[in-house]
Amino acid sequence: MVFIFDKSGGELYHESDITIERYITMTTRQNSKPAQTPSSPLALSVFHILVVLADGEAHGYAIMQEVATRSGGMVKLGPGTLYGAISRLLEDGLIEESKGRPDPNDDPRRRYYRLTDLGGRALAAETRRMEDLVRAARATKLVRKMKPA
Question: What is the CATH number for 86?
Answer without folding.
Answer: 1.10.10.10
